[in-house]
């Protein structure tokens, strides 16, 4: 969950202190955990290239969905669980989920976590005869008020997490008898393995991404991955899945606005394609006219393959990205193709065609 919080905190709205400082501190914790992995362990050696990739502090500076999910899927399970009070670890899971929900503007998930923490505070307030609890009575009273949670930012929530951790030992009996039921919210207590039984606690993108991974053989997803246009009936079915089953159209639009600053509605197909990617076969078919080594030199072929890899990874590519040399290792597409307008227009046409196939046909 820390990794997902890091990704959310990259949004423009969070680029001021103390949130930038909070992100830096959180990134340092994640980096230290990865860097501390014992490379002599068999399971670590199996993922050594990924470990070394993210052991560099700069690797956490700008996380996209692919890199964050790579860390969660491959590195988080390798990190040993901290030897700590079990009830405190469970509290950590709840509060980090709350932070993610706050940063991602997932109000239902945030409010659910708030209710759980307020329940914990209420139980602790009945134990003020314990000196440690008595010392935190002002904090406990504060977090039971709706006003605190309405305005709380992530550093404040983390302060509450740290203040409550030392008090959780006094609720072991209530947790054991499920008078305080926080156990059922947690499937795994390993660092990084943060799934819950309720998809309500996931952000919209996470829910959508999980659906795509679990249903990769779905005919609609297969068509999008293979650059095959959908019929009007199929578009309606796709919209029902992503705007009714996985979440709501408002959740989708809010996510698009946060991530791209674009005014919705953005193409649902483009978003779904970003999750499925474009198959290698579809990419080769789309760029077939550029794969003749007799027509293009090695530098030009390398650039074409870089564009294909981008599209396979991201599903589509906006034509404007062609002008960003940083996307291609500093190579200027105009210079590589010697300003050949006909070729550049042909590449742009292919990219527009791929994007068109991920959008409904105009009526």
Largest sheet: none
Please count the helical segments: 21
Shape: elongated
Elements, N to C (H/E):
HHHHHHHHHHHHHHHHHHHHH
Count of the separate structural domains:
4
Global Rg: 24 Å
Spans where pLDDT lies below 50 across 5 or more residues: 183-201
Number of DSSP E strands: 0
Label the structural class.
Answer: mainly alpha
How much beta, percentage-wise? under 5%
The multimeric state of the shown protein is: single chain
Overall pLDDT confidence:
83
What does this structure look like?
There is one protein chain. This protein has four domains: 2-78, no CATH class; 86-201, no CATH class; 204-276, no CATH class; 280-356, no CATH class. The chain is built from 21 helices and no strands. Mean pLDDT is 83; it is low at 183-201. It has helices spanning 2-8, 19-35, 42-45, 48-54, 65-75, 86-103, 107-125, 131-134, 137-143, 146-151, 154-165, 172-176, 204-214, 219-225, 232-245, 249-260, 268-276, 280-286, 298-314, 333-336, 341-356.
């Amino acid at each position: 969950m820390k990794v997902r919080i890091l990704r959310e905190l990259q949004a423009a709205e969070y680029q001021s202190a103390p949130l930038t400082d909070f992100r830096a501190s959180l990134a340092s914790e994640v980096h230290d955990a990865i860097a501390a992995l014992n490379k002599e362990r068999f399971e670590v050696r199996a993922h050594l290239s990924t470990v070394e990739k993210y052991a560099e502090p700069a690797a956490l500076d700008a996380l996209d969905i692919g890199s964050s999910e790579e860390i969660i899927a491959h590195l988080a399970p390798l990190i040993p669980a901290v030897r700590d009070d079990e009830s405190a670890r469970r509290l950590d899971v709840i509060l980090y989920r709350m932070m993610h929900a706050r940063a991602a503007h997932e109000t239902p998930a945030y409010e659910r976590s708030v209710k759980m923490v307020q329940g914990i505070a209420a139980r602790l307030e009945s134990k003020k005869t314990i000196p440690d609890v008595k010392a935190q009575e002002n904090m406990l009273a504060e977090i039971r008020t709706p006003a605190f949670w309405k305005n709380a930012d992530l550093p404040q929530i983390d302060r509450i997490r740290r203040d409550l951790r030392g008090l959780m030992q006094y609720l072991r009996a209530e947790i054991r008898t499920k008078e305080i039921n926080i156990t059922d919210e947690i499937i795994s207590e390993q660092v990084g393995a943060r799934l819950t039984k309720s998809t309500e606690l996931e952000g919209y993108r996470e829910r959508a991404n999980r659906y795509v991974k679990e249903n990769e053989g779905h005919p609609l997803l297969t068509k999008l991955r293979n650059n095959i246009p959908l019929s009007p009936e199929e578009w309606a079915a796709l919209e029902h899945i992503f705007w009714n089953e996985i979440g709501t159209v408002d959740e989708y639009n809010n996510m698009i606005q946060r991530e791209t600053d674009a005014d919705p509605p953005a193409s649902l197909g483009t978003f779904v394609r970003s999750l499925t990617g474009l198959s290698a076969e579809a990419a080769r078919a789309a760029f077939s006219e550029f794969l003749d080594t007799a027509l293009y030199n090695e530098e030009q072929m390398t650039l074409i393959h870089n564009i294909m890899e981008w599209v396979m990874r991201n599903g589509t590519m906006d034509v404007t990205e062609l002008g960003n040399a940083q996307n291609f290792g500093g190579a200027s597409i105009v210079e590589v193709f010697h300003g050949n307008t006909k070729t550049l227009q042909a590449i742009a046409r292919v990219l527009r065609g791929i994007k068109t196939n991920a959008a409904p046909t105009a009526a």
